[in-house]
Structures are given as structure tokens and as C-alpha cells.
Amino acid sequence: MEIGHFTWLRAHKARYDVSSSGVTPIPLDDVVRLGGAGNFIEDLMSVYGVDKRNLAITHGTQEGNFAALTALRELGLIEKVTTVIPEYEPIRVLPRFLRLRQNELRINGSLTELLNHIEKGSALFFSNPNNPLGVFLSSKFLWELSDELRRKGAYAIIDSIFLEFVENNLRDLPMENVVFTFSTSKFYTMRELKVGWVVGDDKVIREINGIIDLVSPLVIDLNLRYASILIRNRGWVRERNLSIIIPNVDAMRSMIHEIKDYVDISYVEYMPIFYMRVMCEDITGSSLANELLSRDVLTVPGQYFGRDDGVRIGLGSINKDDFEKAMKIIINVIREKCRR
């Protein structure tokens, strides 16, 4: 099995790298200066307003997704999984890897259509906010989703790694028939460590903890201490992230009008990514990404999200000057391709 998204990123380098969906890593020295660490579990209980029985610690979001979907299968609660297109490739691949029946739902501007695809003995499995579009279900819709899942005897696994970019209050997440997976990889990015956690339905969490103990127990205490410092300073992290993202968003918005007849932009405020769909005949996301790569700009083609109609562009891991240079190249390439 091969995850094409990762193969693409490992195989290619460019002067202007806008392929990352995260934010420039926080230096370890900056983290140390933020203050002392606490008990990571207690910190999470405070942030999410939950009991310890609603929490599991993992090594990352993908491990959390794997453990959660495996838990639902092993508990005999699901036989079928619904995912969406476009979607982060590992989410789309995992149900098939676990030999679960899978339905893929095409979405455009909203995830609310998922509420119409809840069946007994099934699970919804999706990123919220969506990667690459950024669209997301608000707390209100998540509660509606939880109620409908409980009523129909279904479940949801929600990859929430981007949620803190768009939602500040995390104490109002529903716990029944839902699990949310998180990690430090995007919002709290550090090069030196990665910690993940799962929040949700207590009987599913209990099974997840058993699976984690079986395959990869004991997250390193030092990692937990640094993660505790970051969690305790969420406000500082948010402001620091936005200081990188917002100038690039402003630059994107001021420049993209030059090709407004050729592209459609999907962007949600404060997200570190946007998706640019190209509306020109015979231009695919793959062909565009390869042409950009030949000009020293690295993006991620839409084929790795299930639709080859554009590219995902990162806003959080590049300084404004370099981002503007990358955007100029992107604009020039699209003009050349679309004016033929």
C-alpha cells in the first residue's frame, strides 16, 4: 500500500514550498519560556470539559483514527464507513485497509450533507474542518449529528486536527456516539515532538485505550510535558499562528483577482490552507502541480484528495515575501495555461 500524498511530498523539493498544511514549528526555546508544565490529562480535561474516561493519549492523529475505527469494528458496532471527497488521503484509505465496506460522498461547499447518510451499524469518518476545503461543522451541527447518530445506532470519527484554527471554545463538543481525534501536528507544531489525543464516547475510548496499549503504549513523558505547556498557552499559540497566516491570506486575496476568471478559491477564515480549483479546459490539478514544480513551487495536487481539479496551497509555513513570490508564479502559470 502507498499513500500518494506522502510519496509526492517526500519525492519533491522546491524553493517555494507551499505544500504544508501546518504552521511553522514553534522553537523549543520559545516553548520553555512560556512557563511550567502541568498534568497533560488534567489540562485536556480542562480544555474540553470532559472526564478522564472520555480521553485517550496517542502518538498522533492518524494513530487515533486507526485506533478509533478499529475499536468500532472490534466492538461490533459498525460494518460500513462513509467518507467524503475531497478528503485527506489516509482517511479515505483506512476503511478499505481495515476491510470495511465504504461509501464515498462528494461534497462541495458543506459537510452538512453527511447528516443524510447516517445508517445503523455505520460510521461517518471525516476531517472537520475538511482538508483541503476548510469547510466545517459548527458546534450546533455537531450536536445535531450526535443526536442523529445515537438515534440511529451509528457513530462518527472526526479528525479534528484543524479545529482549533476555527473554534476557540472546545468545551461544548458532544460525546455520545462520537470521537474526535487531535494532535500537536498542526496548531501546536514542534519539530521535536508530537502527541495525539482522542476525546469522545467513553465505551469507544475504553476500547481505543486497549488498542493503543497493544500496538504502541507509553507516549514519552517529556513529550507530554512540552505538550502540556502548549495546551496551557493556547491563546499565545493562536496569536502566534495567526501572525503567520493572516499576512499570507491578505496577500492571496489581493493577488488572486488577477486570475478570478480562471480559478475558484475555497478558503475558511484562519485556516492554514486553501484550495484552488482551476476552471480551464484540459488542466488538471496534477498537470498544474507538475508545471508549478518545474518552476520551483511545491503544492499538493487535488488527486490526493480524490478530485484532480486543483491544488492545495499552504498559508502557515512560509513567510509573506516568499508566499507572494510563489503566488506570482502560480498566477503566471495559470494565465499561460488558461489563455491558450
TrEMBL record:
Record-linked CDD domains: AAT_like
Gene3D superfamilies named in the record: Aspartate Aminotransferase, domain 1 (3.90.1150.10), Type I PLP-dependent aspartate aminotransferase-like (Major domain) (3.40.640.10)
InterPro entries assigned to the protein according to its UniProt record, in alphabetical order: Aminotransferase_I/II_large, PyrdxlP-dep_Trfase, PyrdxlP-dep_Trfase_major, PyrdxlP-dep_Trfase_small
Keyword Transferase: yes
Keywords attached to this entry: Aminotransferase, Transferase
UniProt keyword Transferase present: yes
GO molecular function: pyridoxal phosphate binding; transaminase activity
Domain Aminotransferase class I/classII large: 109-329
Cited SUPFAM superfamilies: PLP-dependent transferases
Protein name: Aminotransferase class I and II
Organism of derivation: Vulcanisaeta distributa (strain DSM 14429 / JCM 11212 / NBRC 100878 / IC-017)
Species lineage: Archaea, Thermoproteota, Thermoprotei, Thermoproteales, Thermoproteaceae
